[in-house]
Specification:
CATH topology of the largest domain in chain A: Dimethylsulfoxide Reductase, domain 2
CATH class of the largest domain in chain A: Alpha Beta
CATH architecture of chain B: 2-Layer Sandwich
Radius of gyration of chain A: 26 Å
Number of domains of chain B: 1
Number of helices of chain B: 8
Largest sheet of chain A: 7 strands, mixed
CATH class of chain B: Alpha Beta
Distance between the termini of chain B: 58 Å
Shape of chain A: globular
Structural class of chain A: alpha/beta
Largest sheet of chain B: 4 strands, mixed
Number of helices of chain A: 25
Strand content of chain A: 15-25%
Strand order of the largest sheet of chain B: 8-1-10-9
Number of domains of chain A: 4
Order of helices and strands of chain B: HEHHEEEEHEHEHHEHEEE
Oligomer: heterodimer
CATH topology of chain B: Alpha-Beta Plaits
Distance between the termini of chain A: 58 Å
Helix content of chain A: 25-40%
Strand content of chain B: 5-15%
Number of strands of chain A: 26
CATH superfamily of the largest domain in chain A: Dimethylsulfoxide Reductase, domain 2
Number of strands of chain B: 11
Chain lengths: ~725, ~290
């Protein structure tokens, strides 16, 4: 197959040819553009056979709103993508989508997109042509620029599939191995623990099989690993026989809001609580501890439940109740998330929590080996906040002359203490591959406008796949809105051409490259299809199933050392920067639907808030809607208070995601960014930022803004709106154990 | 509209209330929402914005109660059924979420008060809103006990969809202008598309052939949508839909202000059914291990 495919043939291949498609092709205006002038414009008077004006057709693609990589179907009508739905073929989300996925179209049609390349001249960013932009790139980074590999770095969000292959090829061409991958919402610490303890970073978790799920701050329904997949599994978990969910965390997450038992704890004491539960399991329920090293056994048996209850803030009754459930109902699943990880001793805390899985024999039952993905070059390069710390350190040492940014927005997410914005001034040439003028892009010297995910090609292999493994295919759902934007893959190929890298220079564009890459895929994926038919099938289904090798988990435990109460001092409260399904790490603050979507817990819209327990609020003399000043040793933020009983009295929680200084009309100047005032404490073993380790003072501030939220009443006032039955009743009527 | 027609329609309407909807309906669209599965994630509400061209009004107008969310997740902290004393210091059972959308009541309180009959009941069992007949008296929203009718106090076209956001607008339905009342339609555009398709293929609409945007996106599958018409047939007969089966399983009947269940422990209930609104949305009670 030649690389030169005219656009109309190409669209036919996309949807029409091959395996019994019922839907095909965009409407005609998308197949040709006046600007390109490559083909004549065909009016609706002479439509192609499959085009029916007014009838929407659906194309499979991949959602890029978070790293979970859900499959989507985009509805295309009259050349525009109108609506996204989940792709039922994708084992990740099985036809479902979350609110962030639904609003993918608002990222695509966002009025604040960057529409042309920009170059910094005399201090300001001025529009330039792509030709000039690439010329500048060649001068500054190309062969002959004198730039050496160690003076160059990439800073990206999670990247996988063929985009990662091209990025690796570019790094190789530059002679560099400096690739920083940054995600604020991550599970790096747990991955490290899993690797050391089970031999696999991301084992497959079987919520559907579990009868009890005990989660230490893992908001698996909202922000953890693969939220939509977890939610589909949660539905199975809650079907008869209905499983019990226990959530232990400092402030209520979406998962906590759905727990049968929600237990508030003082941040950083989760490990202690886990060991106390282990003690009850061993002493009261006679669970053998023999799989654990002697030192750990001794440690566990040494705890006094009442003492632990005092330190953690959880009640002794709850500890005993949790142990009872875990012992009576098997199998169970114990997981740890952000609020357990984000401490100086985060690794130890998570390791202590994971011991419960070993004591309860969950490894191999509800924690299964995910197996080896056969194409390591396509797997997700994922990361956490260590990259931020390392990057800041490298900038401090003035190690880089040129940095390329893609996806991540470190200038927004980095705590003020890291001084990233100032340190970036020391980098001579910063290039942002970006769709929006976010905080990082605003500091760039060269801005390359990217196509939206709905306009671009790609392949994606998410880091966590809870079921059958797939390569998820991303295809354009419509013509680019702006002619001066380019696909990431296309630009990467231009860069590789600039370096005359053998093998990549022959491709006209990323599409041609992907066609060849698909043709080169091994027979096991192609299942006897011809190249063309395999390609068409991949686009129609949106996913390519990938057989994985059978893996195994080997349990290895080491000594754990969990921190206890860390004292109060000058800053009496813990600050929890809360992650939420919606704003996420701040990347969705420019989406009006999500700004207007009430927060699941507090129901606040368009602004930040500070969560507080009634007893704390009484102490400070504030009520819901009043403003408070929250001061850490690193800075101060102000927000209106939301008072409720879903938070530990020693904790103040402020959601992440708002408080942008740039990022367009919907994001800029709304709310506050709690990440800014974090202490730059790092987790000892992994080097991740300890996001939950910051202490703050809280005082009343003058009320300048009203807090806007959905709903006037927090109570049902005796009306039967949400009725509740006990699990016993459910078991009697709808079946149970 | 002759006087005779008015009387005929009125008596048909009264009869419909007593018997739980018109028996000569073509369809009777209804829902079952399982609060044991609903996680309150808000995906349904945003899917509704995307499907139904709902305006984003901004913080100030939201504060004035002018938000246009046809579907919203209400969240309560108290749990009267588990005993108030349980919520002392902490909400140990999490939150109480409930997705609320127009309940498409068979005896809709919004309908009889409309001075221009802009809101009426369709032979599909839908509580419909005729936008170009609406004069904006707002009597209907005043009369809705669920507060699920939304009034366009402003024209939002410019402010809500600055270019090129307007390109996302669903061409299958209008963008409502200032002075018009709007509400959840059970995605009537999808219903009509499915009915048209079935008619062209000379068959009946199949159960699950299409879903409203909220039910389609719901990550836990908490929302079941379909035809409730077979509820009028004892035993359901052939072609009972999944949603009708759920109503039957939970012994929730139409046309009642209070359910007389053989097994009172079954979870099905309708919100505010004592008001004789006869809603077409059944909720299944939330479940908690205590």
């Amino acid at each position: 197959m030649s690389n030169k495919v005219n656009r109309r043939d190409f669209l036919k291949i996309m949807g029409w040819s091959g395996v019994g498609a019922t839907l095909a092709g965009c409407d005609l205006p998308t197949t040709v553009t006046l600007e390109e002038g490559k083909e004549e414009v065909v009016s609706y008077l002479m439509p192609e056979e499959f085009v029916i004006p007014g009838i929407g057709v659906w194309y499979a693609s991949t959602c890029l709103q978070c790293p979970a990589g859900c499959g989507v179907h985009g509805r295309v009508r009259e050349g525009r993508v109108l609506k996204l739905e989940g792709n039922p073929e994708s084992p990740i989300n099985r036809g479902r989508l979350c609110q962030m996925g639904q609003s993918g179209v608002q990222a695509h049609y966002n009025p604040d997109r960057i529409t042309q390349p920009m170059l910094r001249k005399n201090g300001g960013l001025t529009p330039v042509s792509w030709h000039d932009a690439l010329e500048v790139l060649a001068q500054r980074t190309g062969p002959g620029s004198g730039l050496t590999g160690e003076r160059f770095a990439w800073f990206t969000d999670t990247i996988s599939g063929h985009q990662a292959v091209l990025l690796d090829a570019h790094l190789k061409a530059m002679g560099s191995d400096n690739h920083y991958v940054h995600e604020v919402i991550n599970n790096s610490v747990t991955r490290a623990v899993n690797r050391d303890m089970l031999g696999e970073e991301q084992p497959r978790l079987r919520f559907d099989k579990a009868r009890v799920v005990l989660s230490f701050g893992a908001d698996f329904l909202g922000t953890w690993q693969s939220p939509v997949h977890n939610a589909t599994e949660y539905a199975k978990f809650r079907s008869p026989p209905r499983g019990v969910l226990v959530q232990v965390e400092p402030n209520m997450s979406l998962t906590g809001a759905n727990a049968d038992l929600w237990v508030p704890v003082r941040p950083g004491t989760e490990g202690l609580l886990a060991l106390a539960i282990a003690k009850v399991l061993a002493t009261k329920h006679r669970k053998p501890l023999d799989k654990l090293p002697a030192a750990v056994q001794e440690l566990i048996l040494g705890y006094d439940v009442n003492e632990v209850a005092r330190i953690t803030g959880a009640s002794g009754d709850h500890i005993i109740k949790i142990a009872g459930w875990l012992s009576e109902r098997s199998p169970s699943l114990v997981i740890a998330g952000a609020t357990a990880e984000g401490h100086e001793q985060g690794y130890q805390i998570v390791a202590a929590i994971m011991l419960l899985n070993i004591i309860l024999g969950n490894v191999g039952e509800t924690i299964e080996p995910a197996g080896e993905f056969p194409f390591p070059q396509l797997t997700a390069r994922t990361g956490g906040t260590r990259s931020l710390v390392d990057f800041a350190k490298a900038l401090e040492e003035k190690r880089y002359d040129v940095v390329f940014f893609r996806g991540a927005n470190p200038v927004y997410t980095a705590p003020k203490a890291l001084g990233l914005a100032q340190k970036l001034e020391g980098v001579g040439f910063k290039v942002a591959f970006s769709m929006f003028q976010d905080e990082t892009t605003a500091l760039a010297d060269l801005v390359l406008p990217m196509r939206s995910p709905a306009e671009d090609w790609g392949t994606h292999v998410p880091a966590y796949q809870g079921e059958d493994r797939v390569i998820s295919v991303q295809q354009p759902l419509m013509e680019p809105l702006y002619t001066e934007t380019r696909g990431f893959g296309d630009v990467m190929l231009s860069l590789l051409k600039m370096h005359k890298v053998a093998g990549y220079s022959d491709y006209e564009d990323y599409y041609a490259y992907l066609r060849d890459a698909f043709a080169a895929m091994p027979a096991v994926l192609k299942e006897n299809h011809s190249d063309d038919s395999f390609w068409a099938r991949a686009l129609q289904k949106g996913v390519i199933p990938v057989p994985t090798t059978q893996g195994s988990l080997t349990v290895k435990t080491a000594a754990v050392e969990v921190p206890g109460d860390s004292g109060r001092g000058e800053y009496p409260y813990f600050l929890v920067p809360a992650a939420r399904l919606g704003m996420w790490d701040g990347r969705h603050a420019n989406i009006p639907w999500l700004q207007e979507a009430p927060d699941q817990i507090t129901k606040v819209v368009w602004n930040s808030w500070a969560e507080m327990h009634p007893s704390t609020a009484r102490k400070l003399g504030v009520k819901t809607g009043d403003a408070v000043r929250i001061a850490s040793s690193q800075g101060t933020i102000e927000a209106n208070v939301y008072v409720y009983k879903g938070i530990h009295p020693d904790v103040i929680a402020v959601p992440m995601g708002r408080g942008h200084e740039a990022y367009g009309r919907y994001a800029q100047g709304r709310g506050v960014n709690p990440l800014k005032i974090l202490d730059p404490v790092t987790e000892r073993k992994t080097g991740e930022l300890a996001l939950m380790a910051t202490r703050v003072q809280v005082s009343r501030a003058s009320n300048e803004k009203v807090m806007v939220k959905l709903g006037g009443s927090e109570s049902q006032l005796g009306r039967k709106i949400v009725a509740t039955v006990t699990a016993d009743v459910f078991e009697r009527t709808e079946g149970g154990a | 509209m002759s006087l005779k027609n008015v009387f005929t329609d009125w008596s048909r309407y009264r009869k419909g209330i007593e018997e739980g909807g018109f028996h000569d309906y073509e369809h009777m669209w209804g829902m079952a929402v399982d609060l044991n599965k609903c996680i309150g994630c808000n995906a349904c509400a945003v899917a509704c914005y995307a499907e139904n061209n709902l305006a984003v009004v901004g913080e100030e107008k939201f504060y004035k109660g002018q938000a246009m969310h046809w579907m919203r997740i209400e969240r309560y902290w108290d749990e009267p059924d588990l005993g108030e004393d349980r919520v002392k210091e902490f909400n140990h059972h999490g939150a109480n979420f409930i997705p609320m959308m127009c309940q498409n009541c068979n005896a809709a309180t919004c309908e009889p008060v409309c001075p221009v009959a802009a809101t009426y009941h369709t032979p599909d069992g839908l509580n419909a809103q005729v936008y170009n007949r609406c004069i904006g008296s707002r009597y209907c929203s005043n009369n809705c006990p669920y507060r699920l009718r939304f009034f366009n106090f402003y024209s939002y076209y410019e402010s809500s969809w600055p270019e090129p956001l307007h390109m996302q607008l669903n061409p299958d339905l209008t963008v409502r202008d200032k002075g018009v009342m709007e509400k959840c339609t059970f995605c009537v555009q999808r219903i009509r598309a499915a009915k048209d398709k079935a008619r062209r293929e000379d068959r009946k609409v199949r159960d699950g052939e299409f879903l409203p945007a909220c039910a389609q996106t719901c990550p836990t599958g908490a929302i079941t949508f379909g035809d409730l018409l077979t509820l009028h047939t004892p035993g359901g007969g052939v072609g009972e839909t999944k949603v009708a089966q759920m109503w039957r399983d939970h012994q929730v009947e139409l046309g009642k202000t209070r359910q007389t269940k053989q097994n009172p422990e079954l979870r099905g209930y309708r919100v505010f059914e004592g008001l004789n609104t006869d809603p077409c949305v059944m909720y299944l009670e939330r479940v908690r291990e205590v």
